[in-house]
Automatic annotation (TrEMBL):
Name under which the protein is recorded: O-antigen polymerase
InterPro entries with a match to the protein in the record: O-antigen_ligase-rel_domated, WaaL-like
Listed GO CC annotations: membrane
Source organism of the structure: Parvularcula bermudensis (strain ATCC BAA-594 / HTCC2503 / KCTC 12087)
Topological type in the membrane: Multi-pass membrane protein
Source organism, top-level taxon: Bacteria
Biological classification of the source: Bacteria, Pseudomonadati, Pseudomonadota, Alphaproteobacteria, Parvularculales
Length: 458
């Protein structure tokens, strides 16, 4: 049996050129399963929820009275993380040596932890914080053992599993895979696919986010191109059948922004960013007018009203917020239920500002900047690293776009973990030339018997 070589690619044509032992193959398989299950699939079955009954909450605390419990989901994630950590124990020096890569996360993690002292609901915020740390640690373990192109490969095989399971669930378990007229509070979505998730928008956005990454996957990161093309075709069908307008927006816009970010020179990239800011407002005005002409709701199904209410509550606690992923955000949730009968800010950035204040939002954007900078450096490497940067970077950009219409920065929801995984993977990414530099320095430091450099002894 060959020796363990975590940096060898796990799948594809190049796998035939290297000996892939069972130990490393199992580790990579566990990584794929971890990425897949971080998106919280088979939600109804796992938490024991009946779609026709919905979730009943205590009106005073907004905590669940019935409708299943997410604790089994959190326990499953912790179990996967434990297995990955156990698998990596023989390589503990590498895990310990990479801890400096956590630096970009420190301001956000510290501020989020501090928010537990003033949160409206300590248990909810604490669970959200623990789930976030589990996601970050899981990707750290994966990124520290695998090269960036392998990490991108793991993400893409997770997307393949999502496509397969969605079609199986839609046709074999339609009561869960397709919105039914009997669904509690969701009969308006009757006939729309939700696949292995709770809501059509969850399915649509997951597909759009992973689909963006698939578009940039060449042979260097995903050699089985026929699987890639089949998955893209499947995702197009799923996206249409989910009837999720936001997913179509993400799937069209994210690839363009990804290309602009990686292909434009720095000056033009920043110029495009400056132009994009007023263009967003112009497009929103145009979209509103078009919706009026089409006889549709120009408020984006009430989102603009929700955002106005969220901004009003942010202004009351602009620095600290009301606690990370708080269920109430002061009186915001109660006011929103009374006004529209719905939960959530329906915007990830407003949701983050409500929970951790503008300070928390700023520290999160620092992580995004660090990930973007890391992606640019990775893109300057080999062909496989360039593709890995665009695949993982495309997933991150699509996730950031998806947060414009849903609260997808929350680590415990369906879409949130995908973005946090991509964000973490880029921050933790280690271009191959850095490993070679360390290796060459190690060789140069070992003298041979006659005083010359001896590579054999390094």
């Amino acid at each position: 049996m060959s020796t363990l070589s975590p940096t060898s690619p796990p799948f594809g044509d190049y796998a035939a050129k290297q000996s892939v032992d069972w130990y490393r193959a199992i580790f990579v398989g566990l990584c794929i399963v971890a990425v897949f299950f971080m998106t919280t699939p088979f939600t109804f079955r796992v938490i024991g929820m009946d779609p026709s009954q919905g979730i009943i909450r205590d009106p005073t605390t907004l905590k669940r009275i019935s409708g299943g419990s997410n604790m089994i989901v959190y326990s499953g994630r912790l179990f996967l993380l434990s297995i990955l950590l156990f698998w990596c124990l023989p390589d503990w020096r590498r895990l310990a040596g990479g801890l400096s890569r956590f630096v970009p996360f420190l301001p956000f993690v510290v501020w989020t932890a501090l928010s537990l002292t003033w949160t409206d609901s300590l248990s909810t915020s604490a669970i959200g914080f623990v789930v976030l740390m589990m996601i970050i640690l899981t990707i750290y373990v994966i990124a520290i053992r695998l090269q960036p192109e392998q990490v991108a490969n793991v993400f893409l095989w997770g997307a393949v599993l999502i496509a397969i399971c969605t079609f199986l669930w839609v046709f074999l378990v339609p009561s869960e895979g397709v919105h039914q007229y009997s669904d509690s509070s969701q009969s308006v979505h009757t006939g729309s696919w939700r696949g292995i998730y709770q809501h059509k928008n969850h399915l649509g956005q997951v597909v759009a986010i992973f689909g963006t990454g698939l578009l940039f996957a060449g042979r260097a990161v995903f050699p089985r191109q026929w699987v890639r093309y089949a998955t893209i075709a499947a995702f197009c069908v799923i996206c249409m059948m989910s009837n999720s307008a936001s997913s179509i927006f993400v799937l069209i816009t994210a690839p363009v922004l990804t290309l602009a970010y990686f292909k434009l020179r720095s000056v033009y990239r920043y110029l495009a960013l400056i132009i994009a800011i007023p263009m967003i407002f112009i497009l929103m005005i145009i979209a509103g007018q078009l919706l009026v002409l089409l006889g549709r709701d120009p408020s984006l199904t009430g989102r603009t009203d929700i955002w106005a209410l969220a901004i009003d509550h942010i202004a009351r606690e602009p620095v600290t917020g009301y606690g990370f992923v708080s269920p109430t955000f002061g009186t915001f949730t109660y006011d929103l239920i009374q006004m529209m009968g719905v939960f959530g800010a329906h915007n990830g950035y407003l949701d983050m500002a409500l929970g951790t204040g503008l300070v928390g939002l700023a520290t999160f954007l620092l992580i995004v900047a660090a990930a973007g900078n890391s992606a640019r450096r990775l893109h300057e490497g080999s062909e496989s690293e360039r593709q890995a940067a665009m695949v993982i970077g495309g997933i991150m950009i699509a996730w950031l776009l998806a947060n414009c219409s849903e609260s997808n920065l929350r680590p415990a929801v369906t879409v949130g973990p995908i973005g946090w995984m991509a964000l973490s993977a880029l921050v933790f990414a280690q271009p191959r030339f850095r490993f070679l530099q360390v290796r060459s320095q190690t060789i140069a430091s070992v003298p041979s018997d006659n005083g010359a450099i001896s590579p054999d002894r390094a």
